[in-house]
Description:
heterodimer, A: 351 residues, Rossmann fold, 11% strand, B: 0% strand
Amino acid sequence: xxxxxxxxxxxxxxxxxxxxxxxxxxxxxxxxxxxxxxxxxxxxxxxxxxxxxxxxxxxxxxxxxxxxxxxxxxxxxxxxxxxxxxxxxxxxxxxxxxxxxxxxxxxxxxxxxxxxxxxxxxxxxxxxxxxxxxxxxxxxxxxxxxxxxxxxxxxxxxxxxxxxxxxxxxxxxxxxxxxxxxxxxxxxxxxxxxxxxxxxxxxxxxxxxxxxxxxxxxxxxxxxxxxxxxxxxxxxxxxxxxxxxxxxxxxxxxxxxxxxxxxxxxxxxxxxxxxxxxxxxxxxxxxxxxxxxxxxxxxxxxxxxxxxxxxxxxxxxxxxxxxxxxxxxxxxxxxxxxxxxxxxxxxxxxx
Amino acid sequence: xxxxxxxxxxxxxxxxxxxxxxxxxxxxxxxxxxxxxxxxxxxxxxxxxxxxxxxxxxxxxxxxxxxxxxxxxxxxxxxxxxxxxxxxxxxxxxxxxxxxxxxxxxxxxxxxxxxxxxxxxxxxxxxxxxxxxxxxxxxxxxxxxxxxxxxxxxxxxxxxxxxxxxxxxxxxxxxxxxxxxxxxxxxxxxxxxxxxxxxxxxxxxxxxxxxxxxxxxxxxxxxxxxxxxxxxxxxxxxxxxxxxxxxxxxxxxxxxxxxxxxxxxxxxxxxxxxxxxxxxxxxxxxxxxxxxxxxxxxxxxxxxxxxxxxxxxxxxxxxxxxxxxxxxxxxxxxxxxxxxxxxxxxxxxxxxxxxxxxxxxxxxxxxxxxxxxxxxxxxxxxxxxxxxxxxxxxxxxxxxxxxxxxxxxxxxxxxxxxxxxxxxxxxxxxxxxxxxxxxxxxxxxxxxxxxxxxxxxxxxxxxxxxxxxxxx
Lengths: 351, 472
């Protein structure tokens, strides 16, 4: 009998701790790719929203070109249902919705608010027994001054926050698709009924890409007349929404930033807000922050010397956001604005 | 480029496939991985790629010089030069403004004007991590524990993107030998890799972000607006948040490296189950603890002297460890609290006649509880921007009991419970899950992975919050 060669055996599977099998690199690539692809289908509504709210540019275009069809396929195969179910259980069904409706009050060339009194209203009194209800909202820039304001408010004892600081990263008035402040402010004014509102917007609005435009309307680049007119309409609309609820708004202006070109763009936004606030005495006030944070040469300064000569870090490393001492300074000025409009201290004398 | 983003996913899929294709040919794999890592790093700020390149060249030049010299005096001088370069980078980019403001404010206190100006220097992401790895390389070569490797291998080691921006701090002896020979493409620990990536994503995207947004930022932002209960839960929540954030990042880093065929050391071992601060530091950021022990504590003299000498070394190590985390006095205070606790434990155990009692369930639970409270007190300083802010938190902790606590919700308590509970999961459970996963056919593995990504993505907030340790 002829010798029969021993049949070649596959190498034994190698295992690691706990008896788990080791797999080939090809398997790692296939599982990763397959897992990611199925996950993209399952998460398609969220991915499409993430693509939509990106800054304008080729990355957004490319992302939309991929996630748009992906969302259609996911919807057709009902693969978006599990995600919607999880969102519903968490009470966050609206997370994946893209709402670009900009509902604002009449255009600024019309009377802003019919019932706006010609003279500022009387200073209303507040005390620890009857506190002024305060709501703080805006983009990420509002968070640090908002925290300072809440601390100062707690010390004043005549002001109560109606809730958390509503500071939303990467949002603004240009892009309701990222976050619709117009709808949100209306709802919050209705549900929380604040007496005073502190806003800071514009940190992400210094470019020309605006969504939520009226049907058929087109606007020019950032700072153009048409851009300014639309931005003005939005700012005025928010001020009027707040005024109609009987509240007073303090709108914090954008600070000087490390980037000189950005500072110039911020100036454009600040000018619009300042002009609109000036049209609404007793209903809105604008707080100019530019010179709080300019250095001795008038330019950007991350550190500023205080009255005692101590160097204080005012601005974050990104050259835009605030540090705590800057927040405290803004809070102090906002409180002064609120004091002008409301009587927040006379209770101390009577108590 | 953050790990839990679509951009990174695309980047990684390309790198994963190409890395395995090029793996058999090291001369091609190394330049490819260096390029991939620099592309990854350029995602933050391309200008800092020059800094990373400088660190590679500086450490390699000194390592080769150290290896080729015999006389001890020259070698010491060379080591001092290498360390000066590394620490100089850190000093300039991380501590310059801190030094200037501290000096200025100290002199302003006594009425003297110091002509030093802060420079608003941008901190390059990951500088503390790759600088420490560079120091480890030259010191190991100086000690003759390690021989310098080729430029390409060292560059691949220092810039390897899975550990580049927030660790773990991988020692030369742990990773460079893996770069010296091709990884075997037949045996990749994929189930562990996917498990680590999945759990890491969940801890970061769901647990850490949820706690940050729903209680931690609120409480530490304006403590006097919140009740004592909210402040207490907020402190515990921060303890869980920072653990979930850093543990999550590390898990992802280790899992990503595993898929590429490389093994990183463990960085966490259930730190909140520690029974003492000494035990805590064996379990928390383990790669940093080992680095501090081997490259700082032992060179300072370690415990090779009197008790007081050992206490001094412990304290110095922890103070410097605190400063490593951030250029601020609150970080130094954080290190000081841990250093004091370590000294106190060492003194307690070193008393004449001290006998370690056997552990009982109750005694172990009590020690764990007390240790966790000390760790949490230290976290207050770590999280606060200033001593005044930390003091506000501490005062509020005792002065507002009985006030409404709307931030203490079921969701917040559940997230804290997940974070703390994860410390007590029996070791056999994840092993069993990984073993079960590894036996699934490939399509089923992909399906399980996609379900994990679905849950994490759906439960997480919109957008991606940066990792806490990126700022260090």
